[in-house]
Amino acid sequence: MKKKRCVYSSLIFLGSLAGAASAFCLSTAVHAGELKGYVMQVQLTPAACALDSSRTRQRKCLEGYSLTITGLLPETSENDCRTNSSAMLSPLQAKVVARVMPDENARIQLWRSVGSCVPMNASQYFRTIINLADRLKVPAELSSAETHASQMLRLKQQFLRLNPGLPTDAIRFDCESNGSNPVLTSIQVCYKANGQYKQCSSQVVSSCPGSFLIKGTY
Question: Is there a contact between 115 and 122 (Cβ–Cβ < 8 Å)?
Fold first, then answer.
């Protein structure tokens, strides 16, 4: 028997993207405890597009998104989470999901890589992503028009102040080098299986030094 816990999310902003109030459910009793939680990956899109020329034709780069979601990855003992089940969303849901995941092919590939390890179908999975993204409040400097230097400790403190209940160790920062300058490319946020924040496991690590650049929007 799978028990469900429903959470109500209010009107919150993910960078420059506004989320609408909605309800969602997460299963908390899945596969005898194999599912330990989730890691949501928030991409700083201007940096990702600038550092990887293969992405330049993707919708998120062409339309100037500041922040996008690249995945909600299950933490599980399973080695293979691939699925052949449908990733089809209704036109209305696809439009909503596109606010934070604009590229349809990327959404399909994500679902096919994780679908067998989550207690949801594709529609429920992407609804969960939307609600977690809506609940997460993001510092304004991540969607600034100007490229600027930032410090990891200060940025983490901003996240903690904006998101009550977010543990100190529930967030990780990833960087890539642009010449000699590290650039922040993504942020990882860790969740329990019921959608509440949790401390990240030792497998989720930061790759950023103490200071780095945040690429401005365009």
Answer: yes
Nearest to 178 by CA among 211, 208, 213, 217: 213
State the pTM of this model. Answer: 0.84
Q: What is the pLDDT of residues 13-27, one digit of tens each?
A: 344 333 433 334 454
Contact 176, 196 (CB under 8 A): no
Q: Are 20 and 12 in contact (CB under 8 A)?
A: no
Distance CA 103, CA 114 (A): 17
Specify burial of residue 159 (Cβ count, 10 A radius: 0-12, 13-18, 19+): buried
pLDDT tens, position by position, 80-127: 999 999 999 999 999 999 999 999 999 999 999 999 999 999 999 999
